[in-house]
Design the sequence.
């Protein structure tokens, strides 16, 4: 195949992945008339679509909810993953391999099975419509434990011995000595967890009914399925753009790491 | 290190496992033998939920819809991803730009992609139909035609996820030793022969990963039809997860919904096992 043809095909493909996003941003800044054009630049530039979104739904509040939930949960996933991963990688104890198999089992379990009982647990705990329902079930994550375990296994024992001689406790060894030595793993887990949480729509739809506690993807979903967008496409699209922007900005900053962490985990959303 | 230190470290995991994995699995099994609307006490109904599943036309339609989705989604995903990965693998200039472009839809929420595609596929003003009109072809009711709607969603889902699979295939392609191709060149093998007899067998493990990941992803199809079509027209885009969700959270048939969840998980398991056999035999 000639290189001309190859680049041609690649450019065409790249265009089909990028163009819709450009169109989306431009359409969200257009007047309603401009929406039906395949425009790359807004037609009849206006911010009114964005203004309308904010007057119809508490999107700013949802943004803060999403950021709070995603950041806190990611932090908890890192802490718990490092602790369990360390125990599995570096300590001898009865039941260690059992725990390892439980983790594998959890990862292969289809979520359809746990969905309803987990909802019922939330009801019983009285966590419906609270942040706890969005945070606690996701605060521990099998993949992060496995990734930390793997990373810790590859570190030299001398590092741990030296710290112990200096009188460091186990938590100190984990978080001050070992974690700084596996930053690529930390970054991978951070990216995968944060992205998954930021984009999660199904679970919030189930456990949150109160608009004040809703996350962004949930609110945008309800807004666009329910009647409140009133068929105003521009408004709907503006809401979608605002949901996309934070993750796209992160992506542009950490592009290489995003791609690497997804490839190394072989997992998606 | 004290003897109980490791247990302290794994204690949060054990607790989390018991509450969010073990209990749900056990409770799900119990639920499938009961009728329950959350408010009234649970009522034991024996195997009634299971027998009801077999008579539930809508459930089987939802399963069939999900399978129809997969039948288009998986081959399309593999062809496009492998094709673009091959092109990228031979391209030196701008490779990182292309990779980044293909990966963009992967990182964005399914909600965003769905709202976006709803406009692209719109009958009157959608870009696809405008292109067809420009070529003097008739417009297509992408999301309103009973026969087409689910496949439109399958194409959209491919567009959304293919970037990830391109990356996986790229990793696979780069792990094929170049000596194999050099030897084949000496034998005078054609490009197609090299692809068929060297590349394909060597990337078999990647192929399997891609098939399983897109199967599991496809089986959990929810957001896309939920936003785009709400399962319509005439339930032709109702996915199995949507139906399970509907039974539980719209009709409050908790026991029945749990039973559906189990039956569906069983179907997933069967499909994945079959795929494993087939993919390993094939190459």
Sequence:
């Amino acid at each position: 195949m000639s290189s001309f043809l190859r680049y041609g095909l690649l450019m065409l493909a790249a265009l089909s992945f990028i163009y819709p996003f450009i169109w989306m941003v431009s359409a969200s800044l257009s007047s309603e008339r401009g929406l039906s054009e395949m425009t790359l630049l807004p037609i009849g530039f206006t911010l009114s679509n964005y203004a309308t979104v904010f007057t119809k739904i508490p999107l700013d509040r949802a943004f803060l909810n999403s950021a709070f939930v995603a950041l806190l949960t990611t932090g908890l996933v890192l802490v718990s993953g490092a602790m369990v991963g360390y125990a599995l990688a570096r300590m001898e104890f009865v039941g260690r391999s059992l725990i390892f198999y439980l983790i594998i089992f959890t990862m292969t379990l289809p979520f359809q099975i746990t969905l309803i009982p987990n909802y019922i647990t939330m009801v019983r705990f009285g966590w419906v419509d609270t942040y706890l329902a969005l945070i606690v079930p996701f605060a521990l994550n099998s993949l992060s434990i496995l990734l930390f375990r793997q990373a810790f296994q590859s570190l030299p024992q001398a590092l741990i011995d030296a710290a112990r001689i200096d009188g460091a406790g186990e938590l100190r060894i984990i978080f001050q000595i070992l974690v700084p030595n596996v930053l690529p793993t930390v970054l991978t887990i951070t990216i995968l967890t944060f992205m998954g949480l930021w984009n999660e729509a199904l679970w919030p739809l189930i456990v949150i009914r109160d608009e004040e506690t809703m996350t962004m993807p949930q609110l945008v979903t309800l807004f666009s399925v329910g009647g409140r967008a009133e068929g105003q496409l521009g408004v709907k699209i503006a809401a979608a753009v605002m949901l996309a922007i934070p993750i796209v900005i992160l992506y542009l900053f950490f592009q290489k790491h995003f791609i690497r962490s997804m490839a190394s985990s072989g997992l998606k959303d | 290190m004290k003897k109980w230190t490791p247990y302290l470290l794994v204690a949060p995991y054990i607790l989390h496992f018991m509450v969010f994995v073990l209990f749900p699995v056990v409770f799900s099994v119990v639920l499938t033998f009961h009728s329950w609307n959350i408010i009234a006490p649970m009522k034991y109904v024996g195997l009634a939920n299971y027998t009801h599943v077999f008579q539930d036309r809508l459930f089987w339609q939802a399963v069939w819809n999900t399978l129809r989705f997969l039948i288009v989604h998986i081959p399309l995903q593999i062809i496009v991803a492998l094709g673009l990965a091959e092109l990228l693998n031979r391209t030196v200039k701008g490779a990182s730009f292309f990779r980044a472009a293909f990966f963009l839809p992967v990182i964005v929420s399914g909600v965003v992609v769905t709202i976006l595609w709803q406009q692209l596929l719109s009958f009157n003003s959608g870009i696809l139909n405008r292109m067809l009109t420009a070529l003097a072809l008739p417009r297509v009711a992408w999301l309103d035609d009973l026969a087409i709607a689910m496949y439109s969603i399958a194409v959209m889902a491919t567009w959304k996820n293919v970037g990830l699979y391109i990356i996986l295939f790229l990793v696979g392609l780069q792990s094929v030793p170049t000596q194999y191709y050099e030897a084949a060149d000496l034998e005078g093998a054609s490009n197609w022969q090299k692809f068929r007899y060297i590349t394909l067998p060597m990337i078999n493990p990647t192929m399997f990963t891609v098939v399983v990941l897109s199967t599991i992803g496809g089986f959990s199809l929810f957001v896309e039809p939920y936003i785009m079509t709400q399962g319509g027209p005439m339930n032709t885009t109702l996915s199995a997860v949507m139906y399970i969700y509907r039974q539980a959270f719209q009709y409050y048939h908790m026991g029945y919904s749990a039973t559906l969840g189990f039956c569906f998980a069983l179907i997933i398991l069967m499909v994945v096992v079959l795929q494993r056999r087939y993919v390993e035999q094939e190459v």
In short: The mean pLDDT of chain B is 90. Chain B is about 75% helix and 0% strand. The CA atoms of residues 176 and 182 of chain B lie 12 Å apart. Chain B touches chain A through 86 residues (CB under 8 Å).
